[in-house]
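[step 3/7] inverse_fold.run input=structure_tokens len=209
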């Protein structure tokens, strides 16, 4: 089953089921996809209008980016669930003999690193989305101001949700170096995301007064 082919109603039912996947990582990626869907909408509402002629090429370029990144995030919705399943498969490996224990531990480490890389990519794309909303707020159709604000909210939720998932995977790693590297990346991205989001929100709220 490919999650991206489900209806919205069926996807929500899958998340609400007793299965641990799809879970927070997939939902975070979906939030980011919604953010880029809104960015694409604002671009389309800005294109073809004489008032915004000076930014037409920029809007066309951003629209292409938004469509591509929305598709990437929708793919990450599925990849996150698949990554979790690989970890579960590693946990289910036999561990009777010393050799089996070593092989299981190595497989689990590899699977956990791969599982952490998926939400890390989701976080990167959502962080980029916040930067793009900040630029869009100054050039996009102001009639879509609230939509741009919601896009920023989706990217912030996607970013934070993805980072939670990176960190919980990092906690299970034996490699202290890899764990520390992932935690440092998460903190740097969280700090930058918070700054960008606050700028976006401040811009929106000021213009809504």
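[step 3/7] decode complete -> sequence:
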């Amino acid at each position: 089953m490919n999650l991206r082919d489900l209806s919205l109603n069926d996807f929500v039912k899958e998340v609400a089921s007793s299965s641990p996947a799809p879970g927070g990582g997939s939902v975070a990626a979906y939030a980011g996809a919604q953010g880029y869907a809104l960015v694409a909408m604002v671009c389309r509402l800005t294109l073809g209008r004489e008032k915004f002629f000076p930014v037409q090429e920029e809007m066309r370029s951003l629209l292409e980016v938004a469509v591509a990144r929305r598709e990437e995030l929708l793919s990450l919705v599925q990849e996150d669930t698949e990554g979790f399943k690989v970890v579960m498969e590693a946990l289910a490996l036999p561990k009777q003999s010393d050799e089996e224990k070593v092989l299981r531990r190595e497989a689990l480490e590899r699977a956990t690193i791969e599982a952490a890389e998926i939400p890390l990519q989701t976080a990167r794309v959502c962080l980029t989305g916040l930067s793009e909303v900040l630029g869009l707020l100054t050039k996009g159709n102001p009639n879509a101001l609230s939509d741009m604000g919601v896009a920023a909210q989706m990217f912030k939720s996607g970013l934070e949700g993805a980072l939670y998932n990176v960190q919980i995977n990092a906690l299970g790693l034996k490699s202290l170096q890899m764990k520390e590297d992932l935690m440092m990346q998460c903190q740097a991205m969280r700090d930058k995301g918070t700054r960008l989001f606050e700028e976006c929100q401040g811009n929106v709220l000021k213009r809504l007064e």
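[step 4/7] annotate
The chain has a mean pLDDT of 95.
The helical segments are 8-16, 24-46, 56-91, 98-139, 145-170, 176-207.
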